[in-house]
Design a protein that fits this description.
Layout (H helix, E strand, L loop, with lengths): L2 H6 L18 E9 L4 E8 L11 E6 L6 E5 L7 E3 L4 E2 L5 E7 L7 E7 L5 E8 L14 E3 L2 E6 L9 E6 L3
Antiparallel strand pairs: 1-2, 2-3, 3-4, 5-7, 6-7, 7-8, 8-9, 10-11, 11-12
Length: about 170
């Protein structure tokens, strides 16, 4: 800091890298980080993961705000549960996490999923909806809302003349 900056009470801002992705833990993080009720940061990486390294279907991760304790909490597989998570992550009051994948599902048009914390640690993934590519839409890549057990969102394509859709679904299975 310069003498003039010290005299005016200014501080230079610094940036600290909290984690560097390696491919097997994710590649190309997308969306915003979510601050959980446990004080940890949660997010997604569009590619990478245990099922394919840098070319894998993506990961869902968490880490402490200090950068310690980075952990992949879910590896996406592809057609069964979705591929390439993309939109922002949200959570309900019980710590269940919700998100979308750009591809995957039974028709490869994207999915809506939830990750429920297990009492013994870890998470259980539940596929809430697999987009079919017709009137229901494709590519749910934008942020969505959670209100009173209902998720509201949009799709980039599909619907009438492939112009996109607005959807809602419940969080229960």
């Amino acid at each position: 800091m310069s003498i003039a900056d010290r005299a005016r009470g200014r501080r230079r801002h610094t940036e600290t890298v909290l984690h560097r992705f390696t491919g097997t833990d994710g590649f190309s993080p997308e969306g915003n980080l979510y601050l959980g009720t446990d004080g940890k940061l949660y997010g997604i990486a569009e590619y990478g993961g245990r099922f394919g390294g840098k070319s894998g279907c993506g990961t869902f991760f968490r880490l402490a705000r200090s950068g310690n304790g980075f952990k992949v909490i879910y590896n996406f597989h592809g057609s069964a549960d979705g591929c390439n998570p993309y939109a922002n992550v949200i959570a309900d009051g019980s710590g269940t996490l919700y998100g979308t994948t750009r591809f995957g599902g039974s028709k490869n048009y994207g999915t809506l999923y939830k990750l429920t914390p297990k009492p013994t640690g870890g998470y259980t993934e539940t596929l809430l909806y697999a987009f079919q590519g017709g009137n229901d839409g494709t590519d749910p890549v934008q942020s969505f809302l959670l209100r009173s057990g209902t998720l509201f969102g949009t799709t980039y394509r599909g619907g009438t003349d492939n112009q996109g859709t607005i959807f809602k679904t419940t969080t229960s299975q």
